[in-house]
């Protein structure tokens, strides 16, 4: 047994059932550190944009290099999400949750020293490597934090707690934009601006110290006594009872270690197809349109579209917040399937109605941003629910990495598509991507509201 695996779950001394107040405080703490991690993800991705001009002037790099530096985190996410998922399924949620935040602290801190010392390679390559490492940490946050939160959350609150994480990502992105511009106006060096994430990361690292291991992961490793001790101490009565039922006979079963190949076996291929495909189709059109909001809206006669672009982000935040609040009341399918069809229609109308008034086009784009962000909230919920414990981290990581392909394709191909195919065709292509996602969800999206994880993980395993 590895050293990481052998230490996971050792903080189980308090085996007696704790008070409801203690369990509520723990759930609040766990939610806060997960939401904080997603806020940090958004902050790191958002802080680089406003200072790219300063970086380019200071480091004397061309447009290709500044594009690579800005996209370095996306490349890192593609690597970090599946690798982090594999590691958290093998060694445990608890140690990897702390190690991942440690990587955030290290990479953030290194940004202060870009091109200031003599121990590093070319400054541009150095910054690219650092941003790549930060992307690995962000990818790991998806595949480590989400399974941990899923496995501790009460079934009645699971949807809104996981949905809150995506709200935090949007808020972090916008806060970074505001902070960057405020510090730039004050004449602060760009290294300090992008390195400001170190303060957030260090605080979250300290807040994660002492968190317990996931009882459900311990069950998969045959460590029933440790699992029940933690469940009774930290989880509400109903969820602890569910863990108890899931643990029956676990000490007589072989220890299961998740592998990537298990994502495509007869039990899990539907969950893999659904989560990866749904996530890909949700983010591809949005990343493209939101990233180039000024350019897109200008094509429809709305000037530079700055205020309209801000409106797209504001409506997206409202869409995520509204969905997160309603998930555990209305259910998953009703908030994911119909809204995808609405977005298909909106994008198709924008593409086909070439002579539409500017106000009509803007209204449709704002509506798309609202509904798309709403069902994108489910990308933070479904992976943790439909994959079984032994591959929950790997499955979440694979879906997150696959979605980054869509985000990258949408972001990099839209300017080319507008220039060579025209805006109407580009919007129809976006509608086609949304159509694939809607059809896939119509077929496979399960209703998991209020069910235990043992029940939700079996919904697509037939």
List keywords for this structure.
single chain, 462 residues, mainly alpha, Growth Hormone, Chain: A, 2 domains, 0% strand, disordered N terminus, transport, Sugar_transporter_CS, transmembrane transporter activity, membrane
Describe the structure.
- There is one protein chain.
- The protein has helices at residues 3-7, 20-47, 52-59, 63-91, 93-110, 123-152, 158-185, 190-195, 197-208, 215-220, 224-234, 237-247, 269-291, 293-299, 306-330, 333-352, 358-376, 382-386, 392-420, 423-444, 453-456.
- The chain folds into two domains: 19-211, MFS general substrate transporter like domains (Growth Hormone, Chain: A, Up-down Bundle), CATH 1.20.1250.20; 262-456, Growth Hormone, Chain: A.
- 54% of the residues are buried.
- The model is unreliable at 1-15 (pLDDT under 50).
- It is mainly α and 462 residues long.
- The protein starts with a helix and ends in a 6-residue tail after the last helix.
- 75% of the residues lie in helices and 0% in strands.
What is the first-to-last residue Cα distance? Answer: 33 Å
Largest sheet: none
CATH superfamily annotation of the largest domain: MFS general substrate transporter like domains
Overall mean pLDDT score?
Answer: 85
Provide the succession of SSEs: HHHHHHHHHHHHHHHHHHHHH
CATH fold title of the largest domain: Growth Hormone, Chain: A
What class would the helix/strand composition place it in? mainly alpha
Specify the number of helices.
21
Helicity range of the residues?
over 70%
Residue ranges: pLDDT <50 for 5 or more in a row? Answer: 1-15
Subcellular location: Cell membrane
Protein name: MFS transporter
Main location: membrane
Membrane topology: Multi-pass membrane protein
């Amino acid at each position: 047994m590895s050293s990481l695996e052998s230490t996971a779950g050792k903080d189980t001394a308090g085996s007696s059932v704790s008070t409801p107040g203690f369990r509520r405080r723990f759930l609040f703490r766990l939610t806060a550190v997960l939401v904080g991690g997603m806020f940090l993800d958004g902050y790191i991705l958002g802080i680089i944009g406003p200072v790219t001009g300063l970086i380019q002037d200071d480091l004397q790099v061309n447009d290709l290099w500044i594009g690579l530096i800005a996209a370095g985190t996306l490349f890192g996410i593609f690597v970090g999400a599946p690798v982090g998922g594999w590691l958290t399924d093998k060694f445990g949620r608890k140690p990897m949750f702390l190690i991942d935040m440690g990587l955030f602290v290290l990479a953030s801190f290194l940004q202060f020293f870009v091109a200031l010392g003599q121990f590093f390679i070319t400054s541009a390559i150095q910054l690219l490597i650092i941003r790549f490492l930060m992307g690995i940490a962000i990818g790991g946050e998806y595949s480590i934090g989400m399974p941990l939160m899923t496995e501790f959350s009460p079934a009645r609150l699971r949807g809104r707690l996981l949905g809150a994480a995506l709200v935090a990502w949007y808020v972090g992105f916008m806060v970074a934009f505001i902070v960057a511009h405020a510090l730039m106006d004050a004449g602060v060096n760009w290294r300090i601006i992008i390195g400001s994430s170190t303060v957030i990361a260090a605080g979250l690292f300290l807040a994660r110290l002492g968190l317990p291991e996931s009882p459900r992961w311990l069950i998969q490793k045959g460590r029933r006594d440790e699992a029940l001790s933690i469940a009774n101490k930290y989880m509400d009565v109903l969820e602890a009872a569910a863990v108890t039922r899931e643990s029956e006979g676990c000490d007589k079963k072989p220890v299961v270690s998740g592998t990537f190949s298990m994502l495509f076996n007869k039990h899990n291929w539907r969950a893999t197809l659904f989560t990866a495909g749904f996530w890909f189709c949700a983010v591809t059109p949005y990343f493209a349109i939101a990233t180039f909001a000024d350019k897109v809206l200008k094509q429809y006669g709305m000037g530079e579209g700055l205020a309209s672009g801000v409106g797209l982000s504001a409506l997206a935040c409202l869409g995520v917040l509204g969905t997160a609040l309603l998930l555990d009341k209305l259910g998953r399918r009703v908030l994911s399937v119909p809204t995808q069809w609405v977005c298909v229609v909106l994008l198709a109308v924008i593409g086909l109605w070439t002579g539409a008034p500017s106000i009509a086009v803007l209204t449709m784009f704002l509506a798309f941003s609202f509904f798309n962000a709403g069902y994108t909230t489910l990308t933070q919920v479904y992976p943790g629910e439909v994959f079984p414990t032994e591959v929950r981290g790997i499955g979440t990581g694979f879906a997150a990495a696959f979605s980054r392909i869509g985000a990258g394709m949408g972001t990099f191909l839209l300017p080319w598509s507008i220039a060579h195919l025209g805006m109407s065709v580009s919007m129809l292509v976006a509608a086609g991507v949304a159509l694939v996602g809607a059809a896939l969800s119509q077929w496979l999206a399960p209703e998991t509201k209020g069910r235990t994880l043992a029940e939700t993980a079996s919904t697509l395993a037939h």
